[in-house]
């Protein structure tokens, strides 16, 4: 006959959970005074227990969320279990996303205190944001398949039917054959674009980051574009701190700078000489900021809105292009953990600001 191990008493089980869980646990009275705090909370705020117990929880919260925590505490003292999410710092810690539960403790049908349990869900939120971004990309690809692939394919199918009806020695047959070739080239170009984008997405997180001197990238791009820049009478100015390096993928960095500078050249204003300025600085806190500004035609952001970086979106139809460059630029920046913003005014110019971690 099996001998059952003795079951620890309730207080011992609770104390073990209280002391060892990675989640933050506080016990508070109705005035929001901390009556007990577990080691996880003490570690987060960097205080010994005697500097936490009998202190207001407000002392460990930023001013903008104190009212929320007091409101939820008061609700818990009505006998309800209260749950909410909040983005906040605690003590001297960095701000985090928290899933907070306040559980009333009752004795003799009255609430005598409230346990607060806070679980760090920062990584979960980041994963949800990544999934949201991937879903947006999926919608973009759905658009490509339904429109950009369908249009040249439908044209090609119609032309094939027409060719069956025409004799090979007629002018109509030759015209239809030429149109068919154009439609197939358009179809091939869309497939090439999709393959390029998928290749970048597949390599996200796989390409090994390295310290890349930005001056080296600038020199390579300058050499690639020096003829077209000279022919249009343009000027490229750079302002880089000595030895400035960016941690990222060298090929992506080249593509980013090349796309932005070639766009500045393509969409220059015919009424004044082109001037492109590239500056780089260390960002506030962690990260680096790269700014590429030109005095070109500019973009009507009131009209373009959020479409600036979308695939196959073009804003200067009088100039040749496919609307792929800025989409790829944004993809490269994000694959290195950064983000890109644009400010622009028609007739004045455009500025792209890249922030890398």
Automatic annotation (TrEMBL):
Keywords linked to the UniProt accession: Kinase, Phosphoprotein, Transferase
Entry-linked InterPro entries: HATPase_C_sf, HATPase_dom, His_kinase_dom, HisK_dim/P_dom, HisK_dim/P_sf, PAS, PAS-like_dom_sf, PAS_4
Domain Histidine kinase: start-end pairs: 144-357
The keyword Zinc is annotated on this UniProt entry: no
SUPFAM superfamilies to which the protein is assigned, alphabetical: ATPase domain of HSP90 chaperone/DNA topoisomerase II/histidine kinase (SSF55874), Homodimeric domain of signal transducing histidine kinase (SSF47384), PYP-like sensor domain (PAS domain) (SSF55785)
Protein name, per record: histidine kinase
Catalysed reactions listed for this entry: ATP + protein L-histidine = ADP + protein N-phospho-L-histidine
EC number(s) given by UniProt: 2.7.13.3
Source organism phylogeny: Bacteria, Pseudomonadati, Bacteroidota, Cytophagia, Cytophagales
